[in-house]
Amino acid sequence: MNSILIKNVLLNGQISNIKIEENLFTAIGNHALDTHSDIIIDGTDKAILPPFYNTHTHSPMTLLRGYADDLPLDVWLNEYIWPFEAKLKEDDIYLGSRLAIVEMIKSGTVFFNDMYWHQGQTLRAAQEMGIRAAIGITTIQKDAEGISNQVEEIEKMEWDNNLIQITMAPHAIYTAGEMNYRCCCEIAKEKGWMLHTHIAETKKEFDECIKEHGCTPVEWLERIGVLDCRVIAAHAIYLTDNDMRILKTHNVTISHNPTSNMKLASGSFLTKEVMESGCTITLGTDGCSSNNNLDMREEMKLAAMKAKAQYGTEFLPASKIFEIATINGAKAFNINAGEIKEGKLADAILIDMNNERMVPCYDLLSNFVYAADSECIDTVICNGRILMQNRHIDGEEEIIAAVKNRYGSK
Amino acid sequence: MNSILIKNVLLNGQISNIKIEENLFTAIGNHALDTHSDIIIDGTDKAILPPFYNTHTHSPMTLLRGYADDLPLDVWLNEYIWPFEAKLKEDDIYLGSRLAIVEMIKSGTVFFNDMYWHQGQTLRAAQEMGIRAAIGITTIQKDAEGISNQVEEIEKMEWDNNLIQITMAPHAIYTAGEMNYRCCCEIAKEKGWMLHTHIAETKKEFDECIKEHGCTPVEWLERIGVLDCRVIAAHAIYLTDNDMRILKTHNVTISHNPTSNMKLASGSFLTKEVMESGCTITLGTDGCSSNNNLDMREEMKLAAMKAKAQYGTEFLPASKIFEIATINGAKAFNINAGEIKEGKLADAILIDMNNERMVPCYDLLSNFVYAADSECIDTVICNGRILMQNRHIDGEEEIIAAVKNRYGSK
Questions:
Q1: Which CATH fold would you assign to the domain A53-332?
Q2: What is the CATH number of domain B52-332?
Q3: Cβ contact (<8 Å) for A314 and B268?
Q4: Residue B367: closest C-alpha in chain A
Q5: DSSP 8-state secondary structure symbol assigned to residue A80
Q6: If contacts are CB pairs under 8 Å, which of residues 17-76 in chain A contact chain B?
Q7: From B79's CA, which of A125, A243, B5, B210 has a CA 20 to 30 Å away?
Q8: Contacts of A37 (CB under 8 A, 6+ apart)
């Protein structure tokens, strides 16, 4: 049995010793845990926190980082993003996913919910690098053609159920049609998978749905039965009060993507109203062409700043946005983690309390949300395995060299 | 003569060699610069960029980082910030300033425009640590009493004019009164110093000024002659069209502080309107109790995101906000820097192009503004002197240990 002992680490204001056996926290206390451990981590001057669960991204889009910015939305998509994407092959997707995973681990993320083409390559990268992922079988066509083949392709692969889950991921109502959504929904229910989709991201989408279907995007998805799946809905900016009631009734989880919403000028997410409606909110970075990184710490700060500007200084305190970025994401994907507690899956980050941004420390979460950056994260543990220590990931140099070698000029 | 040779560094898309002699860039080219150099820096896989000029902060407030957040503005100020500040002694200010300077250097900043009590201690810290600063003789009283003493106190000190300049810094129109402003203005003109003040930060300030003086804050400052100084105005959120005309006429520089404006829910800065009025905009982090770090890279991203949400995707491209955060700040303070050019003061940062956030690199400034974090900054040079290399600053551990030792619980 693999085991890790983290000694003398700050947990909830107390110096503690923490034992990990296989993929679980098995003992936590301020007494000595003198059982044998394969690995001992010195937690002196470090604090332990739950890591991030990024609930909406398109990981291979790291390859498009900085490829096109500051453009009108249609020029950006039609002249830059889509032509670039059309050229991406399976090995590009594999490499882009690996770069994304390096970046995510280095910024404290242990799970990502992904939607992209050639998703088998992202699955392979996540599995190999030991990070949790929900891999979306991504469908963008109007009809249901080819979807069952996509499912078969993925099901031929092998993966560790402790790390990987599959979702059906019809892209959005303006790309995927009713037959596509219905088919994805049926498969998701049959397999027990979640359904991941963009909902109500732009005013244009909302207005066109009203025009075409006589109802809002959320009402339309309810009407065709999609909300009977376990749904994770990205963006969800344009919501009526009735939409929020519907989302709550169907236990839809919302992935809030504040940076992308601002960079693409999509609109303001109704954080307060959605929270008051009782819907669960989680946090996502979206892909690297509308952010342009995968840094959940930065995303928390931006979400909090935006919400305070919208609703006042007291709204969305540090502890709340931290919960949204961590345990809410884990719960949404049925991952028994997001808390440092005995019996929970051993996902954690260790924070360097000697970093200049972490001192003085009156309030650990305030410092982490509002002042830190990724350099404050020293160690990342996912499912009982150390993915990063002293800010180093095994093999990261090779991945970066491969990306530099293959991409880098327009 | 001290000299530095930076070899094989990326500058404007070309591999270059850069010579620094004393405090100036003296030769830049792609040919060999084979003169003797005291220090040789290998610039391989690094890019050189101008560093940041932070035009509004209260550096010792690092000591209040995370001390009070997410509270109503009056509770925050009256029950937390002001009682804490009242207890700060000169040696606290010295230590808080040193912590701030560590944080600024580590995030690529070589200049800060400061406003705080016991400003001689901030001057001392900046001078010792080799960073540029504009030290504000900060006045908060209604009348002019004691101001000339404050000036005398500072003038007893010794400083290097290459690094340090002094400003008169009446706090704001709701704290400092007319006689205070008039006195500061007179001294600033006589000494050739700039005048640094908060202007029109809150709706309350704007409304109360109208009620008390029958004019806007900007109009009032013009009326009492303050705008005849060289003024740097922080925040400037509540501006009428006429205010913008006045600010432009008097060549007032505006320090935009987007994080603070959002965290304190002060209001939305009119970036586009102010730019169209022809006023110069610079960037500032404000102090650590309303941000809560001094990271100008993060501040650039937030400024751009906020502005795009307000005005559309094309507004404030990466190159523009980078200019605002760098050369605009340098120019506002008559520092002949902010560009990597022969004859300019040798202020620069070296970017690690092997950091995962900098790859692929289609557009260096896009990556730096939208994707980087401070870990991408390897080296900081200020006035021809290396302040940080390999992300290490001499003496940083001692400063952090001293802060941890003295502060850290409420």
A1: TIM Barrel (3.20.20)
A2: 3.20.20.140
A3: no
A4: A66
A5: I
A6: 62-63, 65-67, 69-73, 76
A7: B210
A8: A3, A4, A5, A19
